Amino acid sequence: MSIVKSKIRTIPDYPKPGILFRDITSLLIDPEGFRLTVAMFVERYQNEKIQKIAAIDARGFIAGAALAFQLGVGFVPIRKKGKLPGKTISQSYALEYGEDHVEIHVDSIQAGEKVLIMDDLVATGGTLEASIQLIQKLEGKIHECATIIDLPDLGGAKRIKEKYGINIYSICEFEGH
After folding, report:
1. How many CB atoms lie within 10 A of CB 62?
2. Residue 162: exposed, middle, or buried by beta-carbon count in 10 A (0-12, 13-18, 19+)?
3. Quick one: pLDDT at residue 177?
4. Domain Phosphoribosyltransferase, which positions (predicted)?
5. Which of 7, 38, 54, 149 would suit a FRET pair with 29, their CA atoms being 20 to 30 Å apart?
6. Which residues on neighbouring strands pair with residue 103, listed in sequence order?
7. Contacts with 100 (C-beta within 8 Å, 6 or more apart), sequence order
8. How far, in Å, CA of 138 to CA of 120, rounded?
């Protein structure tokens, strides 16, 4: 875990003053770091009989697709509104000033399928919560949510656990936001 954390850079004042942006691109360009990240997820989930990895646009796609490949399971993209062709369902979530939406194909998850939701990090938990709601609409069974980073000061993982009873596994935590 400390190796993965050490390869994630912090960019101060991005995208606005006062924010400490946790940038996983520095982890992704490091072969050892990226390989270790995927291996840690594989180790955790290889015996859990996951049937689909549902990953959130866009950085969640990276580890999510690699994990789906390693586990030999389906990969389901959860995208920003208007980015998926075909029939979709949509879920809104709150932003600091307004709201946004994520969508999923209606035929991507079958009732009762065991699903792991993946994203790069959990902050306030808005996109993870919207993704949970989408998968619940499709009657998928959510095993857990997985992220590379948790920002516990923002409370998203705790709120999702309390509200939905769904655990969020994160490889590392960073204090401050």
Report:
1. 20
2. exposed
3. 67
4. 36-166
5. 54
6. 79, 90
7. 80, 81, 92, 93
8. 23
7-49 per-position pLDDT tens digit: 999 999 999 999 999 999 999 999 999 999 999 999 999 999 9
The set of catalytic residues is: 59, 96
Domain annotation for the chain: domains and CATH numbers: 49-173 (3.40.50.2020)
Burial string for 105-114 (b: 16+ CB within 10 Å, else e) reads beebbeeebb
- Per DSSP, the three-state class of 49 is coil
CA nearest to 170, candidates 134, 127, 121, 123: 121
| Whole-number Cα distances in Å, 157 to 126, 138, 142, 143, 168 | 10, 22, 15, 15, 6
Query: Look-up: residue for tokens 């994630």?
Result: 8
pLDDT per residue over 64-102, tens digit each?
Answer: 999 999 999 999 999 999 999 999 999 999 876 779 999
Tell me the C-alpha distance between 148 and 136, whole Å.
23
